[in-house]
Design brief:
The chain is 42% helix and 18% strand. The chain is an alpha+beta fold. The radius of gyration is 18 Å and the shape is elongated. The model has no long low-confidence stretch (mean pLDDT 80). Pfam families: MerR_1.
């Protein structure tokens, strides 16, 4: 019996673009702790992720396309140092020329320029300072996951929709 509301490791890799090694790394460094369910007559447990974890993995993978793991670690260290929730799925991080900015989405300054907090830099200069940046449209993680799921030959879309219906509301 599969965990209710949980996404398999295989589905997670397909939906997020993460490799098996990346998922293992995320677990090893305590970024993402999957659920393990041991089934009868099996030596190894099956590995599952929640909808929230799926979004977190997708956010990390998208950020990794723009910057190094070292910079991502600096972002997480910054958030931890200032006692800010380390989750990246609910933060808009923009990387421009090796500098990482956290754009807070209260929309009070929405327009052509948005104020952003600098959270990482290759040379650690200006970290913690606000700056103005121009950003493209944000918040496409969920849409990308659903598009991938619908096009997938691996994922049963009806089952996936049912399993994620409740967890999406709390993400």
């Amino acid at each position: 019996m599969q965990g209710e509301g949980l996404i398999t490791r295989k589905e997670t890799m397909e939906l997020t673009g993460a490799t098996s090694n990346q998922l293992q790394y995320f677990e090893r460094v305590n970024l993402i702790k999957p659920t393990r369910i041991l089934k009868e007559r099996r030596k190894r447990p099956d590995v599952y992720y929640s909808w929230t974890q799926l979004l977190e993995i997708k956010a990390i993978c998208k950020l990794r396309q723009e910057t190094s793991l070292q910079t991502i670690r600096k972002i997480l260290d910054f958030l931890e140092e200032y006692q800010i929730n380390k989750s990246l799925r609910d933060k808009q991080i923009v990387v421009i020329d090796g500098e990482a900015f956290w754009v807070k989405l209260d929309w009070s300054d929405f327009g052509r320029q948005i104020s952003a907090l600098k959270v990482a830099d290759k040379h650690n200069k200006g970290v913690g300072q606000y700056t103005l940046i121009v950003v493209p449209a944000l918040k496409d993680l969920e849409q990308e996951i659903w598009e991938t799921a619908k096009q997938s030959k691996t994922i049963d879309i009806k089952s996936f929709t049912k399993r994620t219906a409740q967890t999406k509301k709390t993400a």
